Amino acid sequence: MSDTDAELLARLRTAANEIDPVPRDLADHVIAALAVADISREYALLTLIENAEAAVRGSGDGETTTLQFSDGSASILLHVTHTERGRRRVDGWVDAGAVEVHLTQDDRTWTTTPDDQGRFAFEDIAPGLSRVRLTVGGDQKDLLTPHFEV
């Protein structure tokens, strides 16, 4: 047989396309499925527990928000308090072996290390959209929260 590899592959491609063609809308369906899966994952991660007016020591207006995020292997609880200067204090607790906790707003990142009980805090944070990333030890993967307002 005198067919080259390229000719053979071209004939195989033609035969496969005739017998089992790729659906025309396959790429659109894949993109839509991935987008829905990502939205569902972010919604599952974000559980708003409480948004209440409460008297908090040192707080001028007393407004607090408590958020909980989880991916099934790690959980993080955040308590956001408004300060007298219009800034925010973010207290948090993690249940996984987090090595570091990063709070990010736009191009600014604050980093801290949780104590032995998993407690950590960020002070003097500007209001705005934020994300938290837990860097965990061992073979666990990091937890990255969806964006939330502080």
Structural features, described:
The protein has two helices and ten strands. It is of the alpha+beta class and 150 residues long. Strand 5 and strand 6 (108-112) form a beta hairpin.
Number of strands: 10
**Fraction of residues in H or I helices:** 10-25%
List the total number of helices: 2
N- to C-terminal distance? 71 Å
> Strand pairing plus helix content: what structural class?
alpha+beta
Order of helices and strands: HHEEEEEEEEEE
Q: Which word captures the global form? A: elongated
List keywords for this structure.
five-stranded antiparallel β-sheet, single chain, 2 helices, 150 residues, alpha+beta
Question: How would you concisely characterize the structure shown here?
Answer:
The protein has 150 residues and is an alpha+beta fold. The protein contains 2 helices and 10 strands; from the N terminus they run ααββββββββββ.
